[in-house]
Amino acid sequence: MKNIILGLAIAATTLAACNNNSNKSTESQNVSNNTHAISQTDNATITTSSVADAKNTVSIKEIVSTYLQLKNALTKDNSTDAATAGTTLEAAFKNFDKTALTAAQKKTFEDVEDDAREHAEHIGKNGGNIIHQREHFEILSKDMYDLVKTFGGGQVLFKVFCPMYNNGKGAFWLSETKEIKNPYMGKAMPTCGTIQEELR
Amino acid sequence: MSFTKKIILAIAIVFIAIQFIQPAHNKSGQVLATDISKTVSISDSVQALLKNTCYDCHSNNTNYPWYLNIQPMDWLMAKHIIKGKEALNFSEFGSYSPRRQLSKLNGIANSIKDDIMPLSSYKLMHKNAQLSTNEKALFINWAQQSKDSLSAKN
């Protein structure tokens, strides 16, 4: 008898839990941004685009610097700090003001953002699982490379390649210094890596 | 009627009542043009693995065992499916951007390798979702090869 009561009680609690639908973040604001960007391209002048450029560099800089924080946490095998940086990075992408972008810039940004935000979010949610964080960091680094190639990083960056990660498949990351500190191998093999490219 | 009996009766009534509230089942029954099989090549053995271990939550076609007709099990499953499809939907793989497709294939290989997927709660209920070492290797290999062929194309 007691078992039945318990079972039914569990059923009732689950029922209550099920109805607690979490809020889904809507991205409808992008739509209005889009129209704005297009109208701006139509009557583009040198002045507006240069203002836009300056503004973008500042915001991209925030994304870049948060990425670098994440990278540095991983070089120190610090999963908790990496998670914090991951969450901050997701927010930096989310809060990036796209209104000043041209239609083409916006397309590139959103293509990267779509992917990078998810990786940043997973890194944020996987504090304590540094292996998984590094797997997401690998793809995130590719996204960041494409972003910096398009928008500029706001500072000199180096593309560093470590051939050992991923069972010899290798992976790269972006660094603010020439000194090699490997975010994939961490303290186990801190100096594995060669500079492949300088991004100015 | 004693107080306890009244409570039991009330709970029983609620339990029976909720049986009538069924979520819409995730069963489209058709292969969309955006299905992953139209984007990358999938061998029969990998297709079987995908169907048995992934598609219940990551496609538009869930295979519903009998106990999922009982509430609140069905609701719990429905929630899982929404979350699963949000993260990755094999039925709509073709609608992802090339960047996302590569990223997802990478994620598939990694989640299998790290035993993140299939979820342990899912494996508990589905015996054939417990992948052997060979099956895992087959799976990971497929994801990596698909990734390589896609990145060569783009």
Describe the model:
The complex is a heterodimer of chains A (200) and B (154). Chain A is mainly alpha-helical and 200 residues long. Chain A has one domain. Chain A is built from six helices and three strands. Chain A has helices spanning 2-19, 29-42, 46-75, 79-95, 103-125, 130-151; strands at residues 157-162, 171-175, 194-199. In chain A, helix 4 (79-95) packs antiparallel against helix 5 (103-125) and helix 5 runs antiparallel to helix 6 (130-151). The radius of gyration of chain A is 21 Å and the shape is globular. Mean pLDDT of chain A is 76; it is low at 4-56. Chain B has 154 residues and is an all-alpha fold. Chain B has one domain (3-153). Chain B is 60% helix and 0% strand. Chain B is built from eight helices and no strands. Chain B has helices spanning 3-18, 36-39, 44-53, 55-58, 73-87, 98-113, 120-125, 133-153. In chain B, helix 6 packs antiparallel against helix 8 (133-153). Chains A and B meet through helix 1, helix 5 and helix 6 of A and helix 1, helix 5 and helix 6 of B.
Termini Cα gap of chain A: 74 Å
Rg of chain B (C-alpha, Å): 19 Å
Oligomerization state: heterodimer
Instruction: Order the strands across the largest sheet of chain A as they lie in space.
Output: 2-1-3
Bulk shape of chain A: globular
What number of structural domains do the residues of chain B give? Answer: 1
What are the secondary-structure elements of chain A, in order, as H or E?
HHHHHHEEE
The proportion of strand residues of chain A reads 5-15%
Give the beta-strand count of chain B.
0
Largest sheet of chain B: none
The description of the largest β-sheet of chain A is: 3 strands, antiparallel
- Report the sheet-strand fraction of chain B: under 5%
Helix content of chain A: 55-70%
Question: Average pLDDT of chain A, to the nearest integer?
Answer: 76
Helix residue percentage of chain B: 55-70%
How many helices of chain B does DSSP assign? 8
Tell me the structural class of chain A.
mainly alpha
Please provide the ordered H/E string of secondary-structure elements of chain B: HHHHHHHH
Biggest interface, chains and residues, is: A-B, 21 and 22 residues
Question: How many distinct helices of chain A?
Answer: 6
Report how far apart the termini of chain B are. 73 Å
